[in-house]
Design goal:
The structure holds 2 protein chains of 2 kinds. Chain A is α+β, with helices and mostly antiparallel strands. Chain A has a single domain (about 15-185), classed as Roll (Nuclear Transport Factor 2, Chain: A). Helix content of chain A is about 25%, strand content about 35%. Chain A contains 4 helices and 8 strands, in the order H-E-H-H-E-E-H-E-E-E-E-E. Chain A has helices spanning about 15-25, 40-60, 60-65, 95-110; strands at about 35, 70-75, 95, 120-130, 140-150, 155-170, 175-185, 190. Chain A has a 7-stranded mixed sheet. In chain A, a hairpin with a 2-residue loop joins strand 5 (about 140-150) and strand 6 (about 155-170). Chain A starts with 16 loop residues before the first helix and ends in a 6-residue tail after the last strand. The mean pLDDT of chain A is about 95. Chain B folds into 2 domains: about 40-145, Rieske [2Fe-2S] iron-sulphur domain (Rieske Iron-sulfur Protein, 3-layer Sandwich); about 165-430, Naphthalene 1,2-dioxygenase Alpha Subunit, Chain A, domain 1 (Alpha-Beta Complex). Chain B is built from 14 helices and 21 strands. In chain B, the strands form 5 sheets. Chain B has a 9-stranded antiparallel sheet, with helices on both faces. The radius of gyration of chain B is 23 Å and the shape is globular. Chain B has helices at about 5-10, 20, 25-30, 160, 165-175, 195-200, 210, 215-220, 230-235, 265-270, 275-290, 290-300, 350-380, 420-430; strands at about 15, 40-45, 50-60, 60-65, 75, 90-95, 95-100, 105-110, 115, 140-145, 145-150, 180-190, 245-250, 250-255, 305-310, 310-315, 320-325, 330-340, 390, 405, 410-415. Chain B starts with 5 loop residues before the first helix and ends in a 12-residue tail after the last helix. By secondary structure, chain B is an alpha+beta fold. The chains are: A alpha+beta, B alpha+beta.
């Protein structure tokens, strides 16, 4: 396997059974009050990171948005409120690194009719809470979001909570290892689900 | 209101905008189509055990599909026989009885009335007659896991109604171990447009390179020599081996399989790029050797679009269900399917196959269907133009040697609109008919 091309932008070797297992474990029972970090530099950095992410998406700066993710990452919008095992149930979206780049590439072709013209969005991110994990330098961050989308002459809303798994990069910034978006209406039929959450 | 004249509205080469925009036509469809003919209701895997139920609709009628305590599959009206409130408000689950939250009337899962609170306040005995049992769809039938119902006592048997579309359904199922699949959640969407816009599109090989241009560009973004995913099939659409078929009774089929070589691994080879592909493939190959190609094919979408009029669209590994909401709004639910290894023939590979198969199914709804739905909405918007009322479906019409007819099945090149013309003829005959619709109140 070592001489394979393992650049996660062009191939997907890292999304294995073990990766899914780890993801399920990481996103289960992380919100222990004993692990909460209410202040200090990690809280500040995590909050800043979430706000920056919202701004990049609002501004359509998708390449900058991609740069916030770790090379081997997951972007997961469960299609059920109980958030089942993504190996056994269809997700609203489950992207690896390459598919995140696919998503951005498609939006930038100019021929994605569902985003022509592109929606305008305004994202409110609040209720940010940061939790430490057993691994130093890795944090779970829960936030509520309210994204207003102006599309096709209408205002509409995407509402729920997001859970980010972040790690501290050697340059001191935080990067997204995995992002889980829990939409209130994840199991409802939704019109034109083509913006990036 | 003007009498609806379907001979004026539906021609060989074109149909009138009002088929998509007129609420009166929609109302008529709710009895002539959704009720007057067999309509897909649910899949057996959604009611796997005795006492399982799944909430759905027949047109706009609220329905609970149950496997009752004796094992019979029924389609009960989700409507209390007292004041009309729905009695089941969960999406699916298990229940022996349903009790109305409003006044407490209760029913067993075969639809029979069990009890009326304080019944001494009535001058009659509710159980002495059957009119207080839940209404139910009088004819419910299952074809290989697909549950259908009709209110029309004069409709042919389900098997006869499906006719030759059974062959591709059989093929689609039989490639899976045990000849079956189970549903495993869905990509759920809706659009502000008439349901027929989706049915018109379901075997349309003409729109692909235009409507899905961004998806095709995305699939080819690495500049590989071998096109993958949808782009594989776009080459020379009319000269190639891909065909559309019309089977009668509104059912049609786009078959892209002839574009593939007939050997294990061929379906997987042209699959687009999805999360986990390379890693899982390497592991499956290492573990299963010669069998790996066949297993990987199960993780890939089989290139078939089987459209069972009016609301069941089987494509790739999906079971897409159309749900009409109004004349200009439709829900479309893309259920994923998983393989099951009941007889152990997959030797434990089902876990890995399904892990890949979930990902191969998510891409098209997210990056392809959204663009189609936008185009459907924009058709609905365009059809506001009253003075320019015709919608054309005459591609191929009048060209010599373009079609074959064999055993009643009409076939043409990939981009032909013959399937639209033919299903519209069937639709016209349904809309002109005046069937007597019935319900039952269950067995005595």
């Amino acid at each position: 396997m070592t001489n394979q091309n393992t650049d996660p932008s062009t191939s997907s070797y890292y999304v294995t059974d073990a990766f899914y297992e780890g993801l399920m474990r990481d996103f289960d029972s992380w919100d222990d009050d004993a692990l909460r970090i209410d202040e200090g530099p990690n809280h500040v950095r995590a909050s800043a990171m979430l706000k920056r992410e919202a701004r990049y998406l609002d501004q359509g700066r998708y390449q900058d948005w991609l740069s916030l993710f770790a090379a081997e990452c997951a972007y997961w919008i469960p299609g059920t409120w109980h958030r089942g095992d993504p190996r056994r149930e269809i997700a609203f979206a489950f992207h690896d690194r390459r598919q995140l780049e696919d998503r951005v590439y498609r939006l930038e072709t100019g021929f994605a009719w569902s985003q022509t013209p592109a929606s305008r969005t305004s994202r409110m991110v609040s209720n940010i809470e940061v939790f430490s994990t057993r691994t130093p330098g890795i944090f779970m961050v829960r936030s509520n979001f309210h994204t207003t989308e102006f599309w096709n002459g209408e205002m509409r809303f995407w509402i729920g909570n997001a859970v980010h798994r972040l790690y501290t990069h050697q340059d001191g910034t935080m990067k997204i290892l995995a992002k889980q978006v829990n939409l209130l209406n994840c199991d409802e039929n939704i019109r034109n689900p083509s913006i990036t959450l | 209101m003007m009498e609806l004249d379907f001979d004026t509205l539906i021609h060989e080469n074109k149909v009138h905008r009002s088929l998509y925009t007129d609420p009166a036509i929609f109302d008529r469809e709710l009895t002539r189509v959704f009720g007057g003919t067999w309509v897909y209701l649910a899949h057996e895997s959604q009611v796997p055990d005795r006492n399982s139920f799944f909430r759905t609709k027949l047109g706009l009628r609220p329905i609970i599909v149950v496997r009752d305590s004796k094992g019979t599959i029924r389609a009960l009206y989700n409507r209390c026989t007292h004041r009309g409130a729905t009695i089941c408000r969960a999406k699916q689950g298990k229940a022996r009885n349903f009790s109305c939250p409003y006044h407490g009337w209760s029913f067993n899962n075969s639809g029979a009335l069990l009890g009326v609170p304080w019944n001494d306040g009535y001058a009659h005995d509710h159980k002495a007659e059957d009119r207080f049992n839940l209404a139910q769809v009088p004819r419910v039938a299952v074809y290989r896991g697909f549950i259908f119902g009709t209110l029309n006592p004069d409709a042919p048997s389900l098997e006869e109604h499906l006719g030759p579309v059974r062959k591709p359904i059989d093929d689609w199922l039989d490639r899976n171990p045990g000849g079956k699949v189970v549903l495993c959640e869905a990509n759920r969407m809706r659009f502000k447009g008439n349901w027929k816009l989706a049915y018109d599109n379901s075997a349309d090989g003409y729109h692909v390179v235009f409507s899905h241009r961004s998806l095709l560009m995305m699939e080819n973004r690495f500049g590989d020599d071998d096109p993958k995913g949808m782009s594989f099939y776009k080459q020379r659409p009319d000269d190639g081996p891909v065909r559309v078929h019309y089977f009668g009774n509104g059912h049609h089929f786009k078959d892209k399989r002839p574009a593939l070589p007939d050997r294990p691994g061929a379906v997987w080879e042209v699959e687009g790029k999805h999360p986990g592909m390379e890693g899982y493939e390497a592991e499956i190959r290492q573990r299963y050797g010669d069998k790996a190609d066949g297993y990987l094919d199960l993780a890939a979408g089989i290139p078939m679009n089987i459209n069972v009029f009016p609301n069941l669209l089987i494509l790739g590994n999906h079971i897409q269900v159309l749900e009409p909401l109004s004349h200009d709004e439709t829900a479309t639910t893309w259920y994923g399917t998983a393989v099951v290894d009941e007889d152990g023939s997959l030797d434990g590979a089902d876990r890995m196959i399904n892990a890949l198969r979930m990902r191969t199914q998510e891409q098209f709804p997210l990056f392809g269907e959204v663009d189609d739905l936008t185009n459907f909405e924009e058709i609905q918007a365009g059809l506001a133009a009253e003075e320019d009322p015709w919608v054309y479906m005459d591609r191929g019409l009048g060209l010599p040697d373009r079609f074959t007819v064999e055993d009643g099945v009409i076939s043409g090149p990939a981009t032909d609109e013959v399937f639209m013309r033919e299903y519209m003829k069937h639709y016209k005959s349904l809309m002109k008919a005046d069937p007597t619709l019935t319900i039952s109140r269950g067995e005595a």
